[in-house]
Amino acid sequence: MSGPVFRLSELQARIGGRLIAHSPEVDSDPPLEGVASLHGAGPGQIGFVVGKSHLEAARKTRAGALIVGASLADAGLPCPALVVDNPHAAFARVTALFHPASPVQPGIHPSASIAGDARISDSAEIGPGVVVGSGAVIGARCRIGAGCAIGRHVVLGDDGLLHPQVTLYDGCRIGHRVILHSAAVIGADGFGFAWEDDHWVKVPQVGIVIIGDDVEIGAGSTVDRGALDDTVIEDGVKVDNQVQIAHNCHIGAHTAIAGCVGIAGSTHIGQRCRIGGGAVIMGHYRIADDVTISSGSFVAKDILQAGVYTSVQPIMPHADWLKNAAQLRHLATLRQRLNSLEKRFESNHSKD
Amino acid sequence: MSGPVFRLSELQARIGGRLIAHSPEVDSDPPLEGVASLHGAGPGQIGFVVGKSHLEAARKTRAGALIVGASLADAGLPCPALVVDNPHAAFARVTALFHPASPVQPGIHPSASIAGDARISDSAEIGPGVVVGSGAVIGARCRIGAGCAIGRHVVLGDDGLLHPQVTLYDGCRIGHRVILHSAAVIGADGFGFAWEDDHWVKVPQVGIVIIGDDVEIGAGSTVDRGALDDTVIEDGVKVDNQVQIAHNCHIGAHTAIAGCVGIAGSTHIGQRCRIGGGAVIMGHYRIADDVTISSGSFVAKDILQAGVYTSVQPIMPHADWLKNAAQLRHLATLRQRLNSLEKRFESNHSKD
Amino acid sequence: MSGPVFRLSELQARIGGRLIAHSPEVDSDPPLEGVASLHGAGPGQIGFVVGKSHLEAARKTRAGALIVGASLADAGLPCPALVVDNPHAAFARVTALFHPASPVQPGIHPSASIAGDARISDSAEIGPGVVVGSGAVIGARCRIGAGCAIGRHVVLGDDGLLHPQVTLYDGCRIGHRVILHSAAVIGADGFGFAWEDDHWVKVPQVGIVIIGDDVEIGAGSTVDRGALDDTVIEDGVKVDNQVQIAHNCHIGAHTAIAGCVGIAGSTHIGQRCRIGGGAVIMGHYRIADDVTISSGSFVAKDILQAGVYTSVQPIMPHADWLKNAAQLRHLATLRQRLNSLEKRFESNHSKD
Fold it and tell me: Lowest-pLDDT range, A271-275, B39-43, C217-221?
């Protein structure tokens, strides 16, 4: 499976930046066959360096070329380089050049089950076993992987990519250029029950899920439909694997949510937030724009100012933990004892 | 898609309660086309108010009618209202009136694969791509969504609703009126291995999962089969998304388990418990009836008395956390120092 | 469904060990029809006892025979027994004797969609609705459950067992005797994005997932493909349900990972580790061989020595928690006050 080959100058022509040669003995415009990590790269590959913390690895790399930021242009790199403002983003583009997505192959697999009144773009690719419900709309150049189940009246914008086994419940509306990974479930019922006497009564969940453009949602993640109003994921939101977003949440544009996060119902998260992996955010709270929640943290209050917030315990050897954790049940007492001792000391001392 | 229309008095006739008018100028029996949240409602919709904390929003609503509890009957509502004992449950019923489930369409989709000796009720609806194993039984009026895989000898009661892509492993027994959401997996092997010399030996998991009546299990949730005895979910249990229930757990009737909870093996949870989102409950423990575990809490002991239990850290700005969390490694020392200081103070003071 | 019957001596012949009779009145070589737990067993079943902590239950059992360790050989058991070095492993083997896997039924279900150039062993069983991509290879005696989606150029070794609805993305390589449970997703894109100006740019994930021999991965678990290098799961690793393993992780041989664990990107976990349920391990860290991480713990540093490590809070009644947790925001202050008081006391005392 040989892919495209680019000379470094050809990459420069496509993504911009400034070329710097290494030495007369080294080809300053090498042909490149792919991307690689600094330690995995060989002479036919290009790597990248985000910051000075990787400088040592960069100096040891066998890569044929590097993408670096301006601060590293004169850092004694071992090969020619392309100097750019944003090495990570530039490398993302170069990677896409070497690994172009395979072209969409328009058509509907004969094993798919498509409702008679569904409207499917002629340029869309519908895989084996896909089911599309009544009234659904699937946009241009969408690629729907094997076994996806798309409910009634779902609207899916252009250039969507659904990996196999995605489920979209009835009525959900998905924007353009959305990527949904396998086993993701969009629009399942929110967890709404009313307690009556001695049992739960199900509250029908009649809102939908609205997902904006350029959203990506990871494998096994779930976004529940709204109870009455809708659950909203704004443009550019990126959601990792096994994230749970409950009914009536609102996730602001360009927020990134790492794996295993759980967000309870009706919570409103601002734009450009970063939610670390394994965090749990309780329901009905409001998180401002540009907030970072550290991985593993538990949020049970509004966070109204941008910044970094944390609530985890440091790990320690179990024997140490046993000694220290035992105190956690007695912190209030500890403080009272200290208060009391301070007072007695003061009182005693004042008598001196 | 116009749905049913009910006058307020028609809703009263179906769910009970007492009608209160607003003023002579306002139609005391308005026609209603649907339900809505207080802030999202218009004149053709009915909202509900659970308690006084939402009174302000209720006074501002544009809804045509409200369902309220007795304590709000004289609260100056802006529209006619139906006064009931349990507004949340009444609203659930009204919502169901406006959003009746689409009727089951009996029959087996031609793309389904049904074992010759499976017994499927004539009134059941079997979707595209469904697979039903040998000896399985599917009850009356069940609706089995696209792509569900139902193992051998599974028994599914009447009026079950399986959304697309649910998997039921061999032998599991499911009660009546059970709802299983997409990507739920019932009856996978418990995590049972014996360590031998330098590797793990798989312990075959030969129990099953038994699920009672009126249980709902959320998207992506997993309930493992028992190792020897069975895993049991009693009647009326409600399980949210991405919950893991390990082998040989026993979940008591009408317990509700919020999203992202993990329950390790052989734990016995009582009836009417409420397990908050993201909680982790270790294995082989016993939790009494009517226990509430706060969201995010970690349980590693028996809880034998009803009540609310908690074990989370408060979130704080990261800089504050750095200072405070550092102390968590030294709590035992801190206490010893306080003990020592108290003793010296006492000893010193007694000399006075 | 009657299964095989073994006399105790036949089990001994297959798994080894030493037979001990009970009393002349009791058949010392009973016929046995199955395995059971100590409290669930009847006279036709065999149970097992790992250690002295279960001795009381063992004395009360109605089982027809027991498998025990040497320390219990003379413990007054109520029935004949087989004494072995490793009762848990022996019991695993006995369980497998009573519950042999149903034989693989070679062949490809007519509803499967197999790429023309995929190479599928004649002895493999391909279930209904399975999709196999171009260039994929499926080994001898593999059993692929209903609805599995196997990407292009995937390589699956011999004797694999994929339960229904597993997804393998393009290019992943899976060893021999691997078991993957339903809704597991192997090889989805890692969570890689570069921030540029005001939005995220997707970094194509061009590594794969490499899974060794004898690995088992639970229902709903996800293992992401590498960004540049590969994600690696070594031989004999056992992964429970709903575990997330991010891009470029490396999991050492025979490590066991319990349910709901999240492991962030590029973390390297050693061999024979045991990661407790619900633990969260941050990215780019290194965990040595033979490390145990307690359930519910949060790891955000390297752990370079074998041992047990913990970072959880003890659960307590909510009222107690309120009092104690409030102190967690003031621990640094508390320590400073203690420091200060100690100094003043010393200073005061030295004046005496």
Answer: B39-43
Fold of B6-98: 3.40.1390
Q: Could you give the angle at the alpha carbon of A136 between the alpha carbons of A130 and A138, nearest 5°? A: 70
| Pairing relationship of beta strands A31-32 and A6-7 according to DSSP bridges | antiparallel
Contacts of A178 (CB under 8 A, 6+ apart): A156, A157, A160, A161, A211, A213, A214, A215, A216, A217
Residues in chain A with CB shorter than 8 Å from the CB of C229 are 36-37, 40
For an interface test with A, the pick among B240, B280, B340, B341 (most A C-beta atoms closer than 10 Å) comes out as B240
The CA distance from A96 to the nearest CA of chain B, in Å, is: 31
**C311 chain-A contacts, CB cut-off 8 A:** 312-316, 321
At residue C62, what is the residue type? R
Q: How far apart are the C-alpha atoms of C190 and C207, rounded to whole Å?
A: 9
Q: Measured between alpha carbons, how far is B165 from B182 in angstroms, rounded to an integer? A: 5
What is the distance between the alpha carbons of residues C152 and C135, in angstroms, rounded to a whole number?
6
Q: Do domains C6-98 and C107-309 have the same CATH topology?
A: no
**Spatial separation of the C-alpha atoms in residues C25 and C4, rounded to whole Å:** 26
**Percentage of residues in chain B with pLDDT exceeding 70?**
99
A100 touches chain C (CB under 8 A): no
ipTM computed for the complex: 0.96
- Record: contact B191-C96, CB cut-off 8 A: no
**Assigned CATH for B107-309:** 2.160.10.10
Neighboring chain C residues of B320 at a CB cutoff of 8 Å: 329
Q: Tell me which of A328, A336, A345 to substitute to probe the interface with C (most C C-beta atoms closer than 10 Å).
A: A328
Distance, CA of C59 to chain centre:
31
Distance CA A72, CA A59 (A): 11
Of B37, B91, B349, the CB nearest to A348: B349
Q: How far apart are CA C277 and CA C221, in angstroms?
A: 13
- CB C256 to CB B294 under 8 A? no
Instruction: Please indicate whether residue C247 is annotated as part of the active site.
Output: yes
* Chain B residues near residue A244 by CB distance under 8 angstroms: 220, 240-242, 259-260, 277
What CATH class is the domain A166-309?
Answer: mainly beta
**CA A291 – CA A257 distance, rounded (Å):** 12
User: Which range among A278-282, A343-347, B145-149, B262-266 shows the weakest confidence by mean pLDDT?
Assistant: A343-347
| Residue at B268: amino acid letter | H
Sequence letter at residue A177: R
| Cα A282 to Cα B339: distance, rounded to the nearest angstrom | 38
CB B242 within 8 Å of CB B259: yes
Q: Give the per-residue SS3 of A42-97.
A: CCCEEEEECCHHHHHHHHHCCCCEEEEEHHHCCCCCCCCEEEECCHHHHHHHHHHH
Three-class secondary structure of residue C342 per DSSP: helix
* Residues on chain A touching B57 (C-beta within 8 angstroms): none
Instruction: Give yes or no for a contact between B87 and B65, defined as CB atoms under 8 angstroms apart.
Output: no
**How many whole angstroms separate alpha carbon A298 and alpha carbon A344?**
38
Q: B48 φ, ψ to 5°?
A: -145, 155
Cβ within 8 Å of B, A 308-327: 308-314, 316, 320, 323-327
CA angle B124, B126, B128 (to 5 degrees): 165
Domain boundaries, chain C: 6-98, 107-309, 318-351
Structure tokens at C269: 């976990």
**Residue ranges of chain A with per-residue pLDDT less than 70:** 1-2, 351-352
Q: Is residue A40 less than 8 Å (CB to CB) from chain C?
A: yes
Say which of C163, C176, C181, C247 is annotated catalytic. C247
Tens of pLDDT, residue by residue over C125-155, are: 999 999 999 999 999 999 999 999 999 999 9
Phi/psi at B135 (nearest 5 deg)?
80, 0
Q: How far apart (Å, rounded) are the C-alpha atoms in residues C204 and C192?
A: 7
**Distance of residue B203 Cα from the nearest chain A Cα, in angstroms:** 27
